[in-house]
Design a protein that fits this description.
The protein is 49% helix and 18% strand. The protein is α+β, with helices and mostly antiparallel strands. It has 2 domains: 101 residues; 230 residues, PPM-type phosphatase domain (Phosphatase 2c, domain 1). The radius of gyration is 30 Å and the shape is elongated. The N and C termini lie far apart (81 Å). This is Serine/threonine-protein phosphatase. It comes from Streptomyces antimicrobicus.
């Protein structure tokens, strides 16, 4: 019995030790991601580079220059914490003083320490400190910061992909952020529901544009993607409105349009939250008709209701959803923009609609400083 208790005690101690080790490793990993982990390896290497450059400048002036001190300074701005960076700057300033005293003011050639050299080194140090303080504030390490932004951008793109449709249906979507940026305040979430019979698409325009709205668009696209298909279609916009209100953002409103399309009959409903009307091309008449539900902006007040607009897509018909960046500018109102959009879209009736979404943005709103999104759905048979 005593041996069994001793074994149990030993196993308990081993489990506690293992737990402490895992906790320490986890804390170390979190600290590293936040930029709080030790940077002594990088600091030691850069700190030793300063006297190496100084010795090279004094002994081999043809190959080394005092301005070479900007190299460890720039690298330090990308790799070190602000406190370590200040120590590196102190070493660099000391090196410049030593070089100026040893070389003297009468030294000829690139090894001479001039006021211009001091200004260049000081300017690089200032920008390096700004970068280090920014990394420390946002908690993004230099080596992973670019990867994180790339992952966020790709996540938005993946969430905006439209599901495959059965034969007889064509869909495509084009998204163009403002100013050529990678992040947009416009996004699309879509899903096949009802056993694949129904296509649900939500096109949303978050307040703001580009990078300013990108973080909110990422958060909302994830939340809307989780709600879509999990709730009855008429409950989606009220739930999205409540979610947006709970965020309590200073600029927390958005417009949205929710399309619910029966892929067997072509019947659809459009529920709108302050969004622009959709446009339907009727193949029989060749005319475009506006389709719009009724409802307020998302995130304005609680208890909002949304009344749907109903329609049907017959063979040859096209339904077009878009955001205001495509049709509204400072010198053009929305009605003129819609007329221009439909006029350009008429060119694709006979040529086919393959690639039309991207080309329409190019033709109608190529240089507009606003986010633009366009969704096309066509029934061919």
């Amino acid at each position: 019995m005593a041996g069994a208790r001793s074994a149990q005690t030993l196993m308990a101690r081993m489990r506690k030790t293992s737990l402490r080790v895992r906790t320490a490793l986890r804390k170390s990993a979190v600290d590293y991601f936040r930029g709080d982990a030790s940077d002594w390896v990088a600091f030691a290497g850069l700190f030793l580079a300063v006297p190496t450059i100084t010795c090279g400048t004094l002994m081999l002036p043809v190959w080394f220059s005092p301005s070479a001190l900007v190299l460890p300074i720039v690298a330090g701005g990308l790799l070190l914490r602000p406190a370590s960076l200040l120590a590196l700057y102190a070493a660099s300033a000391t090196a410049l003083i030593v070089e100026a005293l040893v070389l003297g003011p009468y030294t000829e050639g690139p090894a001479r320490v001039t006021p211009g050299t001091v200004l260049v080194v000081a300017a690089c140090g200032f920008f390096g400190l700004v970068i280090a303080q920014f990394r420390s504030r946002v908690g993004v390490p230099w080596r992973r910061g670019g990867t994180m932004l790339f992952d966020l951008r790709e996540r938005i793109r993946v969430q905006s992909k439209l599901p495959a449709l059965p034969p007889g249906w064509h869909r495509e979507m084009a998204l163009r952020p403002a100013g050529g940026q990678s992040f947009s305040g416009d996004f699309v979430v879509a899903a096949r529901t009802g056993g694949g019979r129904t296509l649900e698409v939500v096109l949303t325009d978050v307040s703001g544009k580009g990078m300013d709205a990108g973080s909110r668009a990422l958060l909302l696209s994830g939340a809307f993607g989780g709600l879509l298909g999990s709730l009855p279609p008429h409950d989606f916009l009220p739930a999205a409105n409540g979610y947006l209100l709970r965020q309590d953002w200073d600029e927390g409103f958005a417009t949205s349009v929710h399309l619910v399309l029966d892929l067997e009959t072509g019947d659809y409903e459009l529920l709108s939250a302050g969004h622009l009307p959709a446009l339907q091309l009727c193949a029989g008449t060749g005319r475009w008709h506006e389709k719009s539900g009724e409802g307020p902006l998302l995130g304005v007040y609680d208890g909002a209701t949304f009344e749907p607009a109903k329609g049907n897509l017959r063979p040859g018909d096209v339904l077009m959803l878009f955001t205001d960046g495509l049709v509204e500018t400072a010198d053009r109102d929305i009605s003129e923009g819609i007329d221009r959009l439909t006029g350009e879209a008429d060119r694709y009736v006979s040529a086919g609609w393959e690639g039309a979404a991207w080309h329409l943005i190019e033709k109608v709103a190529k240089d507009v400083n606003d986010d633009r999104a366009l969704l096309l759905i066509r029934r061919s048979t």
